[in-house]
């Protein structure tokens, strides 16, 4: 099991590394050239900028049982298809049971925005979000190792 981070805009890179080290799991950071994110003793895979470029590189690297930290529903769908374990930065574990609804909500929000209306942006991140993420990530590691 490896921990793969979709790091562009990800607020839990350091937290993931900390938990990965605690469980002795390899952590790999994926980012594009606009968001170079490097940490000591952690492998970073740098991808050229492009629509979903990082997502496709992650999908090509993931193996069954790998955990992928992403807030992208499309990438989460690809990870589920490869028997990976996707989780978002707030601890939501994507599953076959919830991904269709999440994709539908994304579609509806995009349709609303295209028609000229506005949708709410994300709320400010809290320490509770970090706690939920830690709990979800630890659960995935412990239950699938």
Automatic annotation (TrEMBL):
InterPro entries: UPF0178. Residues 113-132 are annotated as: Disordered. Residues 113-124 have a biased composition (Basic residues). Belongs to the UPF0178 family. This is UPF0178 protein PBV87_17655. It comes from Holtiella tumoricola.
